[in-house]
Write a structure and sequence with these properties.
Glucose Oxidase, domain 1; 17% strand; alpha/beta; globular; 41% helix; 18 strands; 22 helices; 755 residues; Transcription Elongation Factor S-II, Chain A; twelve-stranded mixed beta sheet
Length: 755
């Protein structure tokens, strides 16, 4: 699309959408109460005080505050005292959780030359917090203790296709230490996969092509990763289960039964360490073997080789495996009409070092929201539903604080929690939001109501203007048709996971970003100076996030009837189901081609078609027996999707009629209807959970077993197809149909109430 046409199209959508939204009442509100809510939001926006957020950020990032550090407790007490001073019913809920910290970290190259990695991040000019002694060193939480000596193999991003590239060149990682780039998958997947391929140790670095001088000026001159910066992080097997490793499925209270360290099933088995690209350079420079293919190469001034060797490393790691307290701050403002319906807003407070972007940029927004609502309460404001604020500890180690609280309070949360609204990091750029598609229409109105603080158009329209230039045909097509804001599906990586994927509570994750580039993530340089200099100077998008989440929370809390909408959810699930039909057809075609190539003796070509149909052993392609894709009955899934779409259409029609008539339900029926709407998400979970990971119980959204943070929709069915587990695929197809039918049945109950 040409630029002039793009501008005209964008302007047209902007004009029509603004006119439409300006005339609309708010979903879930009568016209009279919509006017009151709009007035409240105008007052809310006017009261957002950027200086407050700046001051709180400066204090909470003034010292390192990882779990178990003294300042972590001070930060928790600071937050709790603020909530108490604003009149909230506030408590600090502590849990005793496993928190390993480094005791020994040694990485040295012993051949062909000698080199000892510094494993330290330099202090930099202009950043006053970059030289503090309290900071945790660079390490991966939940790496095992270990000492290994071996040759090195460079594995690019450590993805399955990278190991296949190695095998084609006769390179095996068995008995070796792998060196991987960050990117392509979540950090914990890299050692997990390396161990599966036989490696005995793992190192991970950020290449300067991805985040460093290959992209722009290095910090502190620019925003890109300093040469000594390295990404700390947890490598517990998050796609299997998050939370405290020693207390699965129960809160980590003092008297909780704990499993033995050696019995924990979510630890990788090989010692793993993050390093800077400065420390990675001598190792990569010493490698020989095949030259890495073009897509593997980075920006270091070397020829990238795969190995193995002659670079040979000695890696030694030892940890303190301590039980330490973590602190959750819970603050409540009771509702006036439906006190047992809770709207919850959450953000974590712990950080790997200073954590200005991750997580304090989101936390200060949440605190300012709470302060403003308390000021409004002094003037008579009281939400219809109870508003709960949660500031979580130990998110960085594996969503531990929030998961322990969810597991400890599962029954009450399942009964009362309307929705959980999460933020984490924030920065300049585009509004990003993912979550339950029952909240998509509700959020679409908000995305159009809040303006981008720099561009002037609505946040939704700015996203649309970007999507009009997308390389994804579906994304571009949707943007050409309307400025509707589409929620993305949630995988994992932040504190919504326990609420959403374990309990089945409608959830959202919201934040601005994408305009800045560069790497402070989980490093010593995620500081107040970095954030205010590069990520969001002037805190314009920090304020904008408050305008968005302030509306989300207060509209849910104040609505006459909860503003859930079911058509978008049904449409989305139908799209996912269509993808499963296509995936099955692709599998059948791939199988036919694979078997034909095996018959003709083209083993290497056959192995390239699909993993699982042929195996790679010691660099050679070995054909397995011919395989067949059995008949999979898709009709249970397709029939349940049809029923879901019909029930959702009837629900939305009844809801629209009810709204046009002014929501004239009595309080008892309103409460009953609300409860069905906010508890219907739980129909999508099954107690036994997903195959091989029962903690994840949601059958529409889950993190991928080999993607980590990345989402797999209809995960039981999708991963069965992807892994060619056909009996499991058929079984999961039936379970998916059952949860969708149950969901549709609940919608029918709600429709009957409205009629």
């Amino acid at each position: 699309m040409g630029l002039s046409k793009l501008l005209v199209t964008t302007a047209f959508f902007a004009a029509t959408t603004m006119a439409t939204n300006a005339a609309d009442t708010i979903r879930g509100f009568t016209k009279e109460n919509s006017d009151k809510q709009y007035a409240l939001e105008k007052e809310f926006d006017a009261q957002i005080n950027v200086q407050n957020m700046d001051d709180w950020m400066k204090f909470m990032t003034s010292r390192p505050h990882a779990t178990g550090q003294p300042f972590d407790k001070e930060v928790a007490e600071f937050i709790a005292e603020k909530y108490k001073s604003w009149g909230y019913d506030t408590e600090i809920v502590s849990y005793d959780i496993l928190m390993p910290t480094p005791k020994v970290r040694l990485l040295e190259m012993i051949a062909p030359t000698k080199f000892t990695a510094s494993l330290d991040e330099d202090a930099v000019d202009g950043d006053p917090t970059s030289d503090q002694d309290e900071r945790l060193p660079v390490y991966h939480s939940f790496s095992p203790d270990g000492e290994v000596t071996a040759e090195v193999v460079f594995v690019n991003q450590g993805l399955r296709e990278d190991y296949e590239d190695l095998a084609r060149r006769g390179v095996d990682v068995k008995g070796k230490i792998i060196l991987s780039k960050y990117g392509g998958s979540w950090r914990g997947i890299k050692p997990k996969m390396a161990e599966e391929y036989g490696a005995i140790g793992a190192l991970i670095y950020s290449d300067p092509e991805d985040d460093g001088y290959g992209q722009g000026d290095m910090y502190p001159k620019g925003a890109w990763k300093h040469e000594t910066g390295a990404q700390r992080g947890s490598i517990m097997d998050l796609p299997t289960r998050p939370g405290d490793p020693l207390t699965p499925y129960v809160g980590a209270t003092k008297d909780a039964k704990r499993i033995a360290l050696e019995d924990v099933e979510i630890f990788v088995g090989i010692p793993t360490l993050p390093i800077s690209y400065k420390d990675a350079m001598p190792i990569l420079q010493a490698l020989e073997g095949p030259v890495a293919p073009p897509r593997w190469r980075g920006a270091l001034p070397i020829t990238y080789h795969m190995g193995p060797g002659p670079a040979k490393l000695h890696l030694k790691l030892e940890f303190n495996w301590d039980i330490v307290p973590t602190y959750n701050i819970i603050a409540k403002m009771e509702g006036s009409e439906f006190p047992d319906q809770w709207v919850m807003r959450g953000n974590h407070h712990d950080a790997w070092v200073h954590g200005a972007a991750d997580p304090i940029s989101g936390l200060v927004v949440q605190m300012e929201e709470a302060r403003i609502l308390s000021e409004m309460a002094k003037n008579g404001y009281k939400p219809k539903r109870t508003i709960v604020f949660g500031a979580w500890g130990s998110e960085e180690q594996g969503l531990i604080g929030s998961v322990e609280w969810v597991e400890d309070n599962a029954k009450e949360l399942s009964e009362k929690l309307v929705a959980y609204i999460n933020t984490d990091g924030n920065g300049a750029g585009f509004l990003g939001a993912g979550g339950s598609h029952t909240l998509e229409s509700f959020f679409d109105q908000i995305a159009h109501d809040v303006k981008d603080p720099i561009q002037g158009m609505s946040s939704a329209e700015r996203v649309q203007s970007r999507n009009l230039m997308s390389n994804n045909p579906m994304t571009r097509s949707r943007a050409e048709k309307s400025s509707h804001y589409y929620l993305s599906a949630l995988g994992s990586g932040s504190d919504y996971s326990g609420f959403f994927q374990h309990l089945g509570i409608a959830s959202m994750n919201i934040g601005y970003g994408g305009e800045f580039g560069g790497g402070s993530y989980h490093t010593n340089y995620d500081s107040y100076h970095y954030y205010t200099e590069f990520r969001d100077p002037g805190l314009h998008y920090t304020k904008a996030l408050g305008e968005v989440t302030g509306r989300v929370v207060t509209r849910l809390a104040n609505a006459d009837v909860l503003p859930f909408q079911m058509g978008n959810m049904a449409r989305t699930v139908s799209e996912y189901a269509d993808e499963m039909v296509s995936a099955m057809e692709t599998s059948r075609k791939d199988t036919l081609r694979h078997n034909m190539l095996v018959n003709e003796g083209h083993y290497k070509a056959a192995a390239n078609i699909r993993e699982g149909y042929s195996v790679i052993r010691e660099g050679y392609f070995v054909p397995e027996l011919k395989v067949e894709v059995p008949y999979i009955n898709l009709s249970p899934m397709q029939n349940s999707v049809s029923k879901l779409k019909a029930s959702a259409m009837a629900f939305d029609a009844a809801y629209k009629k009810m709204s046009m008539e002014g929501y004239k339900l009595n309080k008892r029926d309103t409460n009953k209807l609300d409860m069905i709407m906010y508890q219907v998400e739980a129909q999508l979970i099954r107690k036994e959970g997903l195959p091989r990971r029962p903690w994840y119980r949601h059958h529409v959204y889950a993190p991928g077993y080999y993607t980590g943070y990345g989402v797999k929709t209809l995960p039981g069915v999708r991963e069965g197809i992807e892994e060619a587990k056909w009996a499991e695929t058929q079984e999961q197809m039936a379970k998916l149909a059952e949860v969708l039918n149950n969901y549709a049945g609940k919608l029918d109950e709600a429709t009957a109430i409205m009629k």
